[in-house]
Predict the structure of guanylate kinase.
Amino acid sequence: MLCRRIFTSFLRSNTYPFLKHPKFTTPFAFLDVNPLNLRPSVLTSLTHKSISSNCTMSDSRRPVIPDVDKADKIELFRALESSLGTPFSSQPFVPNASPLIIVICGPSGVGKDAVIKRLREVRQNLHFVVTATSRDMRPGEINGKDYFFVSKDEFLTMVERNELLEYALVYGDYKGIPKQQIRDYMAEGCDIVLRVDIQGADTLRRILGNSAVFVFLVAESESALVQRLIGRKTETKETLLVRIATAREEVKHVKRFDYVVVNAEGELENSVKLVESIIDAEKAKVQQRRVII
Ligand SMILES: Nc1ncnc2c1ncn2[C@@H]1O[C@H](COP(=O)(O)OP(=O)(O)OP(=O)(O)O)[C@@H](O)[C@H]1O
């Protein structure tokens, strides 16, 4: 006690200014370690408490923290808990990430469908919104899986009922995104993938702003894109020309997107991995995108 008084009066005087160094004024600082890895404020208040409790609490009532190398884990855990005075919480430090809407766009033939198909195979809790379209079914396509194939009249009825988040007339056919499907899957905690053309992406940006993630897919070059489109064998020479001319304009809009992914020839897996990384990074953001449809 006498020693402490002498030490305190030294601290108050300016005779030995080095004694005001945090090493001497911060509890435990002389150890050069923080034995419980506590925040300095907690440490300070704890130590002040235990110093002041010296006056009132007998040694037998003070919680004893066993030595780390001797105590078993549970004993140490409980001792630390009772020293701090409140039970350790098992609540997650951060809540679950909000479901995301990922909008994938890019010129015709770049590989949007191929990337999304693979993404669905490798990633859980991801729902690809099945778009409604008035175009004819292509060989191999399945109604309700690739698209909801509807007549023009049926499509226009959906528009009248405000059932579509966004719709457009593309190469003479209507395409639109059903709202209810998005609400249902987001309620289950799924991320939503939307596949749209450039007009659709513009409209969605107006509607959703920054609450969705916009990804633009490009080929490594124009010539690679044309070869891919030819290789798909779905187009006539006329529609090929229209799609290629349109693609030339579309790639100029890349700046409006949040991310660009180069889907290079033979590198589909890498493109999918990159899209996955984008989703993971978005989910780790402190300020989450929150979307209401
Ligand atoms: N990285 C890649 N390397 C080689 N071929 C690819 C790659 N990605 C996609 N493809 C192929 O390119 C063709 C066009 O791809 P896909 O149909 O997915 O394009 P899209 O962007 O969905 O086109 P559209 O908008 O016209 O429907 C397909 O035959 C597909 O298998």
User: Anything to note?
Assistant: Confidence is low (pLDDT under 50) at residues 1-57. The radius of gyration is 31 Å. DSSP finds eleven helices and nine strands in the chain.
